[in-house]
Write a structure and sequence with these properties.
By secondary structure, the chain is an alpha+beta fold. It is built from 13 helices and 20 strands.
Length: about 400
């Protein structure tokens, strides 16, 4: 029996998503849930635009040769879904970085073009054991808000600093004030020589120190190709969740023989930064649901307002109000069912709707609405003033 505070229970109550046996570790998004999913994407896209990223899309399936070059075939194959077309082996991608590397190689940039920043909402698959699957927190199919920066080694510190500075503000918009940082160093199973790891760890730590980050040390927890900074959020219950990450990689540029042309015409090896803000879109959404207990910030609510006519003769005005609110860009519905008003109000709040709009003959005569907040406060507001106020309250931060 799931707790009512579990994100799976909340997802069911709010009609956001479901999971079923025929697709283990994969999500069926309902219309309301997919609105929420898209809102997360849109907020990240704003961040990408501000950070100078260009969005790309790469194949879901790549041949064995690419995964051998990246080192995933040797270090991660047990977690990959491998396919055989009768002639050669392929794998469904567990990460997007090899695909982004192929794009960078085709660019063949000079130093003037660096940094090159690529981003993708990459749908990835990992062969997690059935016993490890856990709602949105541990899936076999999920989306990474993946990004890669290809830059000169002397640009690494500035790129890391810019990413770290943006995260605290970003997470605050979702209601997370407490952000901690951990430094994860080389694991026992890794690619690359020790001197390459020495250089990468020193550079990433120096970038963190320059930004004033007080890092918790996590020995042996880095990726097999490089050390990383992990950004840890604390939820309302005091639990810690690793979300964003930035990883410094000198290994994959060498394995794929990446280069750019410097000012003297010589070929030089770029550094590569792997970064994500959410990590997993689905996991972050589950964290959001549990942190806010289903009462999401108004700008994130799949349905921001619900218009309820209090009597049959108010139906026409209720439809007009709904249309006006919708035309203003608000996510609004209308509930004119033959149910008691108290029942419809209760269901609206149970389904996470932040504002209920009540209209009757008195409101129609006054061209106003009764605006009821989920905390229970209720007041009469002229329609035009209400529209302007609600647009301001519901805007994306």
């Amino acid at each position: 029996m799931l707790s009512e505070h579990d994100h799976r229970s909340l997802g069911d109550r709010l009609d956001l998503f479901h999971l079923q046996e025929e697709a283990p570790g994969m999500v069926f998004w309902h219309p309301r849930g997919f609105i929420l999913y898209q809102l997360l994407e849109e907020r990240v896209r704003r961040e990408l635009s501000a950070g100078g990223y260009r969005e790309v899309r790469t194949p879901q399936i790549l041949g064995q040769r690419i995964w051998e070059s990246s080192g995933h075939w040797q270090n991660f194959r047990g977690d990959m879904f491998v396919l055989d077309d009768g002639e050669r082996l392929f794998a469904v991608k567990p990460v997007s970085c090899p695909g982004h590397i192929q794009i960078f190689q085709r660019m063949a940039p000079s130093f003037r073009a660096l940094p090159v920043r690529l981003a993708e909402f990459g749908l990835v698959h990992r062969n997690e054991s059935s016993g490890a699957l856990h709602g949105l927190f541990r899936l076999r199919q999920f989306t990474q808000d993946d990004g890669h920066i290809f830059c000169m080694e002397e640009q690494v510190a500035d790129e890391v600093a810019a990413f770290c500075r943006s995260l605290r503000v970003f997470y605050r918009d979702f209601g997370f004030e407490d952000v901690q940082v951990a430094f994860s160093s080389r694991p026992a199973q890794r690619a690359g020589a020790d001197e390459v790891w020495d250089r990468a760890e020193a550079a990433l730590l120096e970038a963190a120190r320059r930004e004033g980050l007080d890092c918790r040390m996590q020995p042996g927890q880095g990726a097999f190709y490089g050390p990383k900074l992990e950004f840890i959020l604390k939820d309302r219950a005091g639990r810690e969740w690793q979300c964003g990450t930035i990883q410094l990689d000198f290994v994959l540029p060498e394995r794929f023989d990446l280069h750019y042309v410097d000012s003297g015409g010589a070929r030089r090896r770029p550094a590569m930064l792997h970064r994500a803000i959410f990590g997993s879109m689905e996991r972050f959404l589950g964290l959001l649901l549990e942190h806010h207990q289903g009462s999401l910030p108004v700008w994130l609510a799949p349905e921001q307002l619900r218009v309820l006519p209090v009597s049959p003769d108010a139906h026409a005005y209720a439809s007009e109000v709904r249309a006006r609110l919708g035309a203003a860009g608000l996510r609004v519905s209308e509930d004119a069912r033959n149910e008691t008003l108290s029942r419809r109000i209760l269901e609206s709040h149970q389904e996470g709707v932040p504002f209920v709009v009540l209209v009757g003959a008195r409101e129609q005569a006054a061209r106003s609405i009764q605006l009821r907040e989920r905390g229970g406060a209720q007041r009469q507001v002229p329609l035009e003033s209400a529209i302007a106020e609600l647009v301001e309250v519901c805007h994306v931060p």
